[in-house]
TrEMBL record, chain A:
Keywords: ATP-binding, Nucleotide-binding, Transport. GO terms for molecular function: ATP binding. It comes from Actinacidiphila acididurans. This is ABC transporter ATP-binding protein. Belongs to the ABC transporter superfamily. PANTHER family: ABC TRANSPORTER, ATP-BINDING PROTEIN (PTHR43335). SUPFAM superfamilies: P-loop containing nucleoside triphosphate hydrolases. The keyword Methyltransferase does not apply. SMART domains: AAA. Coiled coil: none annotated. It holds the Pfam family ABC_tran.
UniProtKB/TrEMBL annotation, chain B:
It holds the Pfam family ABC2_membrane_2. The lineage of its organism: Bacteria, Bacillati, Actinomycetota, Actinomycetes, Kitasatosporales. The chain crosses the membrane at residues 56-75, 104-127, 161-184, 204-227. Residues 1-26 are annotated as: Disordered. Keywords: Membrane, Transmembrane, Transmembrane helix. This is ABC transporter permease subunit. It comes from Actinacidiphila acididurans.
Length: 323, 314
């Protein structure tokens, strides 16, 4: 939403993640049922779905942790899990929450994860670790044992481990879990910052407003299937949004708006909402017309269709219903 | 509980192994130039193992054994009279009677006392936890997406377990040497075959024995590593490995099962005493080392086959 499309400079058709019929079966149940996911380079891609819809299983397959039952996955243009060794150093990941060595300090945890990456230069290791700690605001707590960290601090340390090297792709699975509102905002601005640097961010979440605030693209999963994917604007604006007028004279307002081509008008108390026509009139003229007809307008404006509306329209169910 | 799994999956994996072992022999050629890249991870792994409170506790227990034995012998002989020949466990040489005459024998006595159970139990704990512990903590997935590489990670894990074997044995040896030198007279060493050697040569043989004891643990280390790749629970992997150890030790002591015994990893463990003969009898030692190498090859490649193909869902 309102994010600059940082991918504009690159070939537009380049996909950072591309799957074909990707499926995973666990003891008879299909956790992921043949999905064709496509994440364009430079996007902030929201991966939405209720708990248990197959998001994490998909991410694990993309990261080469589990073998797909069927289908294929390409990350950064190379097949996974076969090319793990060349692909994964360019990918930072936070999968299903942070996992740390409680008896090691925050800094030592990062040193260990960095040592695990064969492409990481040991000479710059401590500097990169310090930079990553600083980026997530953990410098002050770096020497503390990780078991003494709060959930939010653990989450930050997990993020820091994903930021040890400059990455082309960041895969963040529920990154704001356990964070306070302040922490959530910091993560969001961090994601925006990274995206502005040209990093593609693949963000899984079950929090719709989170996705709506930072993502340029989104995909929705339910019961192991990919229901839809595309730019967030396209997804949420199946409609252009509804016109909403708050007035003590709803009946008169309804009449005037209908005369100007606004359809599906509903009046609930003092609030009248309706769909604008395909060729919408200037909203200022519309407002003037209302006032000219003697309607006392308290509020006037477009209500953007939320992703939640889109989601409910797609799945026909509340978002929090587990798949 | 995983013991059943072990026996269930073991043969399959070994089948698989034979085919994959061929691939493995070709692989080092590709990996060779990257030998350096493992050092950083290996160092990190050692730090992780040895900083753990549990590891230090195990080493402390191992260090305590020679101290306890030394003090016990000292008290017994201090009351006048030498340590009577009442002890006859029929299992390995009775070094303990000689401790009051020569403190160096406390080293041999301590290694003989810890090898059947204390040492392998400690190895079982560390090896069993090596992969499964990371899986249950969730850190395994982050190591793998780093990407540590499954083969590389497994090699590093096995390397660190073997390092622990050596460290554990050296801790027993060092503690026994210190206690022995502090509490008892030390001098020329009378070998089991009756000849005398100088103290310095005796020390050299003690060190050689320590290395042999460490090498005797290679088999259980590989077994523990394999068990560790089967489960996502560190505790059950440790329990299964230690359980296997106990079972094998029992089977090794049932005369009716003598047909199997030459294939059990602890069977030749006490062969290290042959170092204290003149001439040194290498027969049992060679059999022991061969058996350990066999266990390392079989269970090492079973662990590799399992770990490189499994889904990491923890």
């Amino acid at each position: 939403m309102g994010e600059p499309d940082t991918g504009a400079a690159r070939p537009a058709d380049e996909a950072v993640i591309e799957t074909r019929g990707l499926a995973k079966q666990y003891r008879g149940t299909l956790a992921v049922d043949g999905i064709d996911l496509r994440v364009p380079r430079g996007s902030v891609f929201g991966f939405l779905g209720p708990n248990g819809s197959g998001k994490t299983t998909t991410i694990r397959m993309l990261m080469g942790l589990i073998e797909p039952t069927a289908g294929s996955a390409r990350v950064l243009g190379r097949p996974m899990p076969r090319s793990s060794r060349t692909v994964l150093p360019r990918v930072g990941a936070l999968i299903e929450g942070p996992a740390l060595y409680g008896f090691l300090s925050g800094r030592d945890n990062l040193l260990r994860y960095d040592a695990a990456d064969p492409t990481a230069d040991p000479r710059t290791r401590s500097a990169r670790v310090a930079a990553a700690l600083d980026r997530v605001g953990l410098t002050a707590a770096a020497a503390k044992k990780a078991k003494a960290y709060s959930l939010g601090m653990k989450q930050r340390l997990g993020l820091a481990s994903a930021l040890l090297q400059p990455r082309e792709l960041l895969v963040l699975d529920e990154p704001t879990n356990g964070l306070d509102p302040q922490g959530m905002r910091e993560i969001r601005s961090l994601v925006r910052e990274l995206a502005a640097d040209g990093t593609t961010v693949f963000l899984s979440s079950h929090l719709l407003d989170e996705i709506e605030q930072v993502c340029t693209h989104a995909a929705v999963m339910a019961r192991g299937r990919l229901i839809t994917q595309g730019p967030v604007a396209d997804l949420s604006a199946g409609a252009r949004g509804r016109l909403a007028v708050t007035t003590p004279d709803p009946a008169e307002a309804t009449r005037v708006l209908a005369a100007h081509g606004v359809s599906e008008l509903t009046a609930v108390g003092p609030k009248v909402t309706g769909e604008l026509p395909a060729d919408p009139p200037d909203l200022a003229d519309l407002n003037a017309a209302l006032v000219a007809a003697g309607v006392r307008v308290r509020a006037f404006g477009l209500e953007r269709a939320t992703l939640e509306d889109a989601f409910v329209a797609l799945t026909g169910e509340g978002f929090d219903v587990a798949g | 509980m995983s013991r059943a799994e072990t026996t269930a999956t073991g043969p399959d994996d070994r089948e698989q192994d034979r085919t994959e072992a061929a691939a493995d022999t070709a692989a080092p050629a590709v990996r060779a130039p990257k030998a350096v890249w493992s050092l950083g991870l290996f160092r990190s792994e050692l730090i992780t193992v040895f900083r753990r409170w549990r590891t230090l506790a195990l080493l402390a227990v191992l260090a305590g054994v020679p101290l306890l034995v030394g003090i016990a012998v000292r008290i017994e002989t201090g009351n006048g009279g030498s340590l009577g020949g009442g002890r006859d466990n029929g299992n390995g040489p009775a070094f303990i009677e000689q401790v009051s005459n020569n403190g160096l024998f406390l080293t041999f006595a301590s290694l003989a006392a810890t090898l059947p159970f204390f040492l392998p139990m400690a190895i079982g704990v560390v090896a069993g936890d090596s992969v499964a512990g990371e899986a249950s903590a969730g850190t395994l997935r982050y190591l793998l997406v780093a990407p540590a590489g499954r083969t590389r990670l497994l090699l590093v894990k096995y390397g660190s377990v073997l390092t622990f074997c050596l460290a554990a044995t050296l801790v027993v040896t060092a503690s026994a040497l210190a206690t022995g030198f502090a509490l008892f007279p030390v001098g020329e060493v009378t070998l089991l075959s009756g000849t005398d050697i100088s103290l310095s040569e005796g020390l050299l043989r003690a060190l050689l024995i320590a290395v042999l004891v460490a090498a005797s643990l290679v088999g259980i280390a590989a077994l523990g590593l394999f068990v560790s790749t089967l489960t996502d629970s560190g505790i059950s992997a440790m329990a299964a490995t230690v359980g296997l150890l106990i079972t094998v030790q029992i089977v090794d002591n049932i005369p009716q099962l003598h047909a199997f015994q030459p294939y059990l990893f602890p069977h030749y463990w006490l062969s290290f005493a042959d170092i204290l003969r003149d001439p040194v009898g290498w027969d049992g030692i060679a059999k022991n080392l061969g058996l350990q190498a066999l266990y390392a090859a079989v269970f090492g490649s079973a662990a590799w086959a399992r770990f490189t193909s499994r889904d990491v869902t923890a």
